[in-house]
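Dear colleagues,

As part of the handover before I leave the project, I'm documenting each prediction I ran so the next person doesn't have to rerun anything. This entry is a single chain, and its sequence is reproduced below.
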Amino acid sequence: MADLKDSSLLDLSALKDLDRARVAIVKTEWNQRWIDKQTEGALHIAKTCQATVSQTLIVPGCVELPFGIRRLYEVTKNTVNHPEAIIAFGLVIRGGTPHFDYVCQTATEGILQLNLTLPIPVIFGILTLDNEQQAAERLGGSHGHKGEEAMITALKMIQINRILAQNAKQP
């Protein structure tokens, strides 16, 4: 795992009092080896911060992530375990055709739209890479652990959402 003390962006001390945060993970089947590493990092941070991964949904690929996220939100929003944030995990490796660009653009725009329309944050955990070496560097290597960072971001956004909701209740 990445050293979480390297940067204030990765500082967990402010998240220790985040009571029972609920995060869902929507992840792809493609590049499962790397997606599992992203998920492991996220689960490590969730456990450290006493957060719960309330749901996990697997979709075929990155293009399907926005649909999966929206449906997961819709079917859980009125339940006790509704997520307060959703992380999208996927990984796209550049090939020799423009397919990479279309997949990345479609997934990015879909997640952007969800962030503008859903009342909970959707965390962009899609890695867009040139090769598998870059995946290794970003999942516990020289570039940290993007799965851990995604969960930290989700928890920080839950905290921001809770603070804003609390402030809105005050006169």
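Residues 146-169 form the longest helix (24 residues). The two ends are 44 Å apart (CA to CA).

All the best with the project,
I.
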